[in-house]
Amino acid sequence: MELAELFGQVIVAPAKPLPPPRTFDIETGELAARRSLRRQIAKLERELADAFVTAFPMGGLASPAATHSEPRLLDLEQLERVRDDLAERVRAARATISELAEQHAANRLLLERMLLEPGKYRFARVSRNDLGELGCGAWHVRPRLGLIGMLMGWWQVKLSSGCPLARGRGLAVAARSAPRLWYA
Fold first, then answer.
1. Mean pLDDT of all residues in 43-55
2. What's the angle, vertex CA 163, arms to CA 149 and CA 60, rounded to 5?
């Protein structure tokens, strides 16, 4: 039994054949070039995103200037310009990350030397931010027992307790704006 008989319908073939698919005026080479450029741009955007994520704990990267806000179709020259700009931003981001990593390594080495010989690094200070670590706190080289320790050459490295205690602005503002009563 045929499908048409089951449903009681008659299937009629179209009277005229469908038109052939449209051909585009763009050459095949240009399409391949566009496809290649879009792949390169996508790869560079992924690399830039990875660099941003890597640099975020170190202080981040500089934000780019906004160029266009409306959607548009780019020609080959504009695609190449976008690709070249992205390649330059990725190179600059990698350079920034390597510079920050070198600074953090140098500060870690300084901290190790401070801990080994505090007398050579009098009053030196290295913060956690200088080491690439999150949070508050700093290592200070201080004399033991104040002035006596300074005169005797007794130096020590102290780690600060961290962030200062949070105080609300409400109490300070209220204390300043409250009327002062002076009694004689």
1. 91
2. 115
CB atoms closer than 10 angstroms to residue 31 = 11
Q: How many domains does the chain have?
A: 2
Residue 25 lies inside a defined structural domain of this protein: no
Q: Are residues 108 and 126 in the same domain?
A: no
Burial of 139 (0-12, 13-18, 19+ CB in 10 A): buried
1 in a domain, yes or no? no
Are 56 and 128 part of one and the same domain? no
Task: Give residue-wise pLDDT tens across range 93-126.
Answer: 999 999 999 999 999 999 999 999 998 998 999 9
Query: What are the E-state strand segments in 62-102?
Result: none
**0.70 cut: is pTM over it?**
no
